[in-house]
Each structure stands twice: as C-alpha cells, then as structure tokens.
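We modelled the chain as a single entity of 192 amino acids. Its sequence is:
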Amino acid sequence: MKHLLITGFDPFGGASVNPAWEAVKKLPDEIGIWQLNKLKIPTVFGKAADTVWQAAKQLHPDAIICIGQAGGRSAVTVERIGINIRSANLCDNEGNQPQEEKILPDGADGLFSSLPVAAMAEAIRAAGLPGAVSNSAGTFVCNDTLYTLLSRCAGTDTRVGFIHVPLLPEQGTPSMALPDMVKALTAAIAVL
C-alpha cells in the first residue's frame, strides 16, 4: 500500500461546516493502492501548511492532497498551480487578512501540482460528476497551503496537490451533495 495524507479545512468565515472536511471524513480508509491518512487542518495562513508538514514528517506519505471549499464553483476542481501570494478578502480563523504579501519572499511566482490533474478531473467526470482542472486556487489559505507544501516537497518523492469542492446544499448555491463529493474524490484518488 502507498500512503496518502489527505486533509480538509475546519469551518471559516462564520460557517458552521466546511464541506472539505466533511467529505474527507467520509472517504474510505483505502482506495485502490492507497491507504488514506485523514487530517483536519486550521483555516489559518501558515498554520494550515505547518500542520500538514508536521504530519507528513511523521508519515512520509507518497502523496498529499489537501481539500478545500470553493463557494461559487459547481464542479469538483483539481488545482493545477499554487501562486506565491497571500491576498485575503476575509480574515482567516485567527483574524489574519494579508494583502499582496509573498508566501516565500525568494520563492518562484508559481509552482505546479505534482499530481496528474487532467487525469483526476477526467476520472471525476467519468464517475458522472462535474469535474474540471482549475488554474487558480485563489489567494486565501487554500492557495497558501498548496504553494507552501509544493515548495517544501520539491526534490522529494512526495507528490502534492489540491482539490476544491463546492458548497454543501445547506450553505447555498451552486452546491453539491456530500455523497457526490465523496464519490468524486474517490474517483480522483483512484487514478493517482
């Protein structure tokens, strides 16, 4: 078996639920050759990536996938790139709201996911659900986490990526039912 560290964020912005963590919790413990290690992470700049990194140092996973929520999206979207910027429209869960800050002062402008993003999006569609490749993980904690982990795992055998899920129906529209999110994530993981 290979080890996958898969994470979901805690609720933020006054919400009582985050579909990312709700979907991760419902995933099976094994998908194909992958043994899943699930981790809830804080929606806080820097701390989210640090939490994942500490777990990764203990687990030495073959891959890391972070899951986040993307209000306004109707598809499960596999992120292609993390960009070296923090610029928040709202505060994170510790009140941080950086504007136009680099994540790593001397870092590359962008870092590409080391996962097969197109194949993962296609697997989601093949499962009968809306799936797509996204070229923007935003500039909030999701992107911060993706970029930081890609930087830290550069030159290692650990592959890193990020997937956004829509809101749950009770959070607004567009949305996706939780069982469909789980089915989509399962399909994406199966083609790693």
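As a brief sanity check on the tokenised model: Residues 83 and 110 are 4 Å apart (CA to CA). The chain has a mean pLDDT of 98.
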